[in-house]
Known about the structure:
Elements: E1 5-10, H1 21-40, E2 44-51, H2 56-64, H3 69-86, E3 93-96, H4 100-115, E4 119-129, E5 134-135, E6 141-144, E7 151-154, E8 172-176, E9 184-193, H5 199-208, H6 214-225, E10 231-232, E11 234-235, E12 241-242, E13 252-253, H7 255-260, H8 262-270, E14 282-289, H9 293-306, E15 316-320, E16 323-325, E17 328-329, H10 340-347, H11 349-358, E18 366-368, H12 370-399, E19 403-404, H13 410-428, H14 432-453, H15 455-458, H16 461-477, H17 483-492, E20 509-510
Parallel strand pairs: 1-2, 1-14, 2-3, 14-15, 16-18
Antiparallel strand pairs: 4-5, 4-9, 6-7, 6-8, 9-10, 11-13, 12-13, 16-17, 19-20
Helix pairs in contact: 2-3, 4-8, 5-6, 6-9, 10-11, 11-12, 12-14, 12-16, 13-14, 13-16, 14-16, 16-17
Amino acid sequence: MKKEKKLIAVSLPYANGEAHIGHIAGGYLPADIYYRFTKLMGEDSIFVSGSDMHGSGVLLSAEKINMDPLEYALKNHENFKKVFEELDIKFDIYSNTHTDIHKQTVNEIFLDLYKSGYITIREEEQPFCEHDNKFIPDRFVEGICPVCGEINVKVGESCDKCDTLILFETIKSPKCKLCRNIPILKKTKNFFLELEKFQEQLEQYILSKKNFRKNVKDFSLEYIKEGLLPRSITRDMSYGLSIPIEGFENKIIYVWFEALIGYISATREIKKDWKEYWGNNSKSIFFMGKDNIVFHSIILPAILLASSEKFNLPYEIAANEYLLLEGQKMSKSKNHLLLAKDALEKYGKDNLRFYIAISLPENKDFNFKEKELITIVNTTLSSNIGNYVNRTLTFAYKNFNGLIEKFESIEDTNYINSTFEGIITEFSNFKIKSALSQIIAFSDHANKRFDTLKIWENKDKKNMYILAQYVYALGILLSPIIPESSFKILDILNIDAENKTFKYSPYFGKIKKPYIIFPKIEIKYD
């Protein structure tokens, strides 16, 4: 029997700005942690994503600074790649939606669905600017929220203040973003994905997914309950992927349809056997913020069901709630953001990874606070975990010449193995926050063992062996979450960190000279 394959993916960010900590907490960090865990468990998994290069957001942002949209998107794509590398987010591939293989894959799927009748041509009304004499994308229309009165909201987006989805039909005082004139609705022909044909299948699919988080299940079922309707997948725009059918040269395939196919094209880009990561003996796991749920629980499954390839549907949709910044929802338009590159420079990558991981918005919004980050890093990471690792290794180096001799301790071995089993269960169920909480509890126990064994009094070799086991275990347990610090712990123990697995076995041997791995953050306030 072939080994099960796993496709781990995270929603594609729009290449219309830089990565901020909302991106990191919403999907990229938890996806990376889970991926690292699967590799340590010896699973056949790949981790894919890429920049969403098209769409009205990219076009609008590029026009603001009088820049070619593709050039602008490529610049932001490189910025995303750099930040992910600096944060130790380790993709097998971080591609983008302007590659030749992506265009080919989108065209093949589009034509497949068109020929089978799942994509049809229909007439609809779209925003049209009479002043500029052209159809304009949703985001080019801004106005006032009809529910809460928030200003400068955009059609097609949710209101930052009340989360209402803004529609052209309901927005107050609509204006064209470019010329400030009032747009109208005008009829045009577009291609539609016939979602209603999958109403029953999608409902049964959602109901069958016992592992789905409550927010995913509730939101998806509510969306289906309202009745699925044909959804437009093309737009009258000049920037984007062209339609592979003659007579529609002035239209492009709309971003929400073609970007979802980016997962398939990215897999195809790096794997000759790419279909095996989407077939029967595979599981696909998607990480994202909750605003992307419907695209992954309804739209993507519909595309996969319609395809003649008969791809597997998503096994897991791990959607997180929002990350707030000092109590407020982050907003690019209001300049209320913390860019990932700035956070990295200020706090350091493992400090940032640790704080976000212990605070992940898996079930409720997470409020990012600088003072809280500093407190958690200084107390939990530095004074708890770091202090245990440092004092244990320093004591062994000074008093035993760095030599950990082999002994046996059934009590500690059983406790460590039991801890591994519990943490493996949490990681396997995508509960990263809970897994890290158990690692912290393990470190608490280790510190208590240090105190009860009183190694500083008896300098017993067996006790030194026992305490070293907890250091070794921490080095492995922390590796998916803070890989660089984990590598440092294992390196001091003379362990080949590159070939480690997520499994405990008795440790003994000669250690290197230890040093402080988890320094405190020194930021003072008036």
